[in-house]
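User: Can you model how dinuclear copper ion sits in this protein?
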Amino acid sequence: MLSLLLANASLMPPAAAEGARSTDHLLFFILGVGGVAYVAIMILMFFFVIKYRHRPGVPSKVDRNITHNTKLEVAWTLIPLGIMLVMFGWGYRNYMRMQTIPTDALEINVTGQKWSWEFKYPSGATGTKELAVPQGRAVVFNVTARDVMHSLFFPAFRAKVDAVPNRYNAFAITPTEVGEYDGFCTEYCGTGHSSMHVILKVLPPDQFAAWEQAHISRAATPEARGAERVARDCTSCHSVEAGKPGPIGPSLYGLVGREEKFTDGSTLKITDENLYDYVRESTLTPQKRIVAGYGPTMNSFQGILVKPGPNGKEDDSELRDIVAYLRSLRPKQ
Ligand code: CUA
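Assistant: Here's the modeled complex, given as structure tokens:
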């Protein structure tokens, strides 16, 4: 048992959070108990099979009609029960450690989508392929999803939680070891599943502060914010260059002035006046009218670009940023 515990340093991924080693030790405890029980059962089974095998001329003892042995039955009920309760209590303690959210924890909002993660910090910093957490401070991950189910897994923290649309699942962790670790999506979510890999950096507090500063958007105008947003969410399908369609959807360059043809045969002349309505329809209800030559593949951004705002009004500021940017995508006069 002790040798197993010592060996786990190389058997398991690095442990970079409080409680991570305890999770390893619990795993080895369960494996150890299971292993000992397996060997004992096998030895006894072969022993009895040989000892009580049928031999010619020796009468069978089956007719002795043994019904039960109270002492033996109490023992084989209570001893495993005690061992199971140790496993349960140990696992429950580790689980509750991640479910108990300290009030001073750094909150990171995580959104999974096909096929990337978005990490948002209270400071305004964001990360997609990379995130950082400060060493020695409790961090809580609020995890949700935009489209289908994903699952966020940090092996070095021994922490994993499902990302489910319209739902927040949280866990808290206190990183202890500075380093670079892996983060994965562990719910098969389609062709880009494997590209949802992220780099998790545990940094000393001062370096973490610097990382955060470097990842805060400096975009000051709606146009610049819209450009950042389009680059993050749209350009994997659409292009923003003149005369060049995207890999999956039409080009977003020069929308104003374009005569759009749709698969239902209708057309729309896009102007400065109807641009907002058209972009709103195309992002919130993308299946309503589909540009001729393309498929109905786009996901709705309902609840993302337009969401409930203060005082019961809607907040469409992110959509307006995008419209401002798209308005600027046209030949200079
Ligand atoms: Cu997201 Cu797999």
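A couple of observations from the model: The helical segments are 2-11, 20-51, 70-99, 205-214, 222-233, 275-284, 317-328. The chain is about 35% helix and 20% strand.
User: Helpful, thanks.
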